[in-house]
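User: I'm writing a short methods note and want a consistent example. For GNAT family N-acetyltransferase, I'll paste the sequence; you return only the structure tokens, no commentary, since I'll be parsing the reply automatically.
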Amino acid sequence: MDIDFLSNHPDKINEVSEMIFKEFVVKTGSGLKYEDVVKHFSNTKDNALPITLVALENGVCLGTVSIFENDLKIRDMYKPWLASLYTKPEYRGRGVGQHLVTKTVDVVKELGFNELYLRTEDETEYYRNRGWTYLETVSDDKYEKIDVLKIKCI
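Assistant:
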């Protein structure tokens, strides 16, 4: 399995866009259009935010993760954020997500950040069991319970 920047694999932009649109846009009712998601992923970079990584095996995309400057408007003092971690169902249980997270931490460190944040509505224990520190629980106009966690990038 290889973890690489989506910007190095433009042929995977539509596939990543479709995964994220179905999992994070449609399910949350955010109102973004599919075309907006494609445009976003068409503009990710490898040395400045936003960054998107893909897990690849023999040319097949197994999953993806992004690094955003902010993923929770009510907590704009925290940056950057791990966002949109997704592994295709048929590849779950193989460590794809953990490989994506590990590479994300490495990239964030290379960019000069000491910490990385994430938000989750229902996977707090998954991250805590992998070294993330719980910071707080907040709510916004969509969710009553959002846990915010961080990890040191050292």
